[in-house]
Amino acid sequence: MPLRQIEVFAAPGHMDTMAAIAQSFDALNVSTGAAAPDQPQSCRIVARPEKQQELIDQIQGALGKEKPWRITIMPIEATIPELEQPAEARRSPEQATREELYAEIDRGARIDSTFLQLVVVSTVVAVIGLLENSVAIVIGAMLIAPLFGPNVAMAFGSTLGDGDLVLRAALTNAAGVAVSVVCAAVVGLAMPGDSVSGELLSRTTLGYENILLALASGAAGALSLTTQLPSTLTGVMVAVALLPPATTLGYMVGTGQLRLAAGAAALLAVNIVCVNLSAQLVFLTKGIKPRTWIERRAAQQSARLSLAIACGLLALLIGIVYWRQN
């Protein structure tokens, strides 16, 4: 697990409290910077990796709601000489703090011109790959599809009970899927094919293996964030579940093949539900939770409700799979 430097900027009167909190958590290093009168002072803390989140929570509680104060969290690449850590801390995987996760996930839940442009480009590439029956081109489309962020953000917001984040992420996800479907439909109207490729047909059928793939995709995306692993490849995993069926849905609508479009729509619905369900379960098992007990109670209610809805929808969709196969 990596070291991080936690730097607190606050009124000079808070510095003794910050140092005392750091000492109570057996901080590896604590230093206080000088400041001009009536100016914020800084306290730099190198915390033990396994105690970083709890230390940050304690500091926020001590500082209270009265501003101005600020906490910055910076990764430490190396120290000379090397700081001694317990063997179990060195062997444990990286674990991002809640604040780091929120900052990264919040960026992926926003609609902007770059997000929409990437959706359009990835959809066009995906349509070409599906029509040409080329797996390589479809994979290339998934590499640039920005659908990883909003889906994981919905699960993260549900885990924390953050309704604003859930709403923004849901709107971003809906916009991304809608743009993908519309673009693919336009391509279908402009380039109606005489035959349907195997790659297209495979996205119009729904089976239990699709459910397992979507569950694995959502779990991989959440794990990549909580363990600070590169999210590019796991972003592709989420795109596997969302971009091809959305593109297929639009293309089939554009070419007037509504029966096949219905199959693609069912597959897309299953994948969205499963990705969010498994991602939320990963966040819960990783201990992601709000700082205060009041927020935790609200988050528990939010998590239970969202899990109940997701499980209910999943059960309904499994029933549809069973009905279609029998």
Short recap of the structure:
The protein has about 325 residues and is α+β, with helices and mostly antiparallel strands. Helices cover about 65% and strands about 5% of the residues.
- CATH class (first level) name of the largest domain: Mainly Alpha
Helix share bin? 55-70%
Q: Would you list the SSEs in sequence order as H and E?
A: EHEEHEHHHHHHHHHHH
Q: What's the rounded overall pLDDT mean?
A: 82
For the biggest β-sheet, the strand order reads 2-3-1-4
Structural class: alpha+beta
The total of beta strands comes to 4
Note poorly predicted spans: none
End-to-end gap: 50 Å
Mind summarizing the main beta sheet? 4 strands, antiparallel
Shape: elongated
Overall CATH architecture of the largest domain: Up-down Bundle
Q: If you consult CATH, what is the topology of the largest domain?
A: Glycerol uptake facilitator protein
Number of domains: 2
The radius of gyration computed from the alpha-carbon positions, rounded to a whole number of angstroms, is 23 Å
* Portion in strands: 5-15%
Helices, by number, come to: 13
